[in-house]
Recover the amino acids of this structure.
């Protein structure tokens, strides 16, 4: 079972343990920005809050990926649609800055 399979299984059973596992894996990938972004994006697809935050930041700042405001906006929308109200302010800022 690879890291994503383990994270997927944990996310279904226990969101808190999944967040911890996500943090540990993120620390292991600290020096590899490209692989780190790929892992974070995959975890964000699962709907892990911390991962969604990292993906939005990566697209805004170009951390492991080319900066892309449109992609950041898409991921903010996904986060809001997934029920993460914390992203509503960021969504409002995106509309303001368009």
């Amino acid at each position: 079972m690879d890291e994503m399979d383990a994270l997927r299984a944990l996310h279904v059973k226990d969101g808190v343990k999944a967040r911890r596992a996500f943090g540990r894996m993120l620390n292991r990938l600290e020096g590899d920005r490209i692989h780190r972004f790929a892992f974070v994006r995959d975890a964000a697809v699962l709907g892990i809050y911390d991962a969604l935050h990292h993906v939005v930041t990566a697209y805004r700042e170009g951390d492991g990926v080319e900066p892309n405001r449109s992609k950041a906006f898409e991921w903010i929308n996904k986060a809001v649609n997934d029920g993460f109200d914390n992203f509503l302010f960021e969504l409002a800022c995106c509309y303001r800055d368009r």
Q: What stands out?
A: The helical segments are 3-13, 15-28, 33-45, 49-61, 69-81, 88-97. The two ends are 43 Å apart (CA to CA). The longest helix spans residues 15-28. The mean pLDDT is 85.
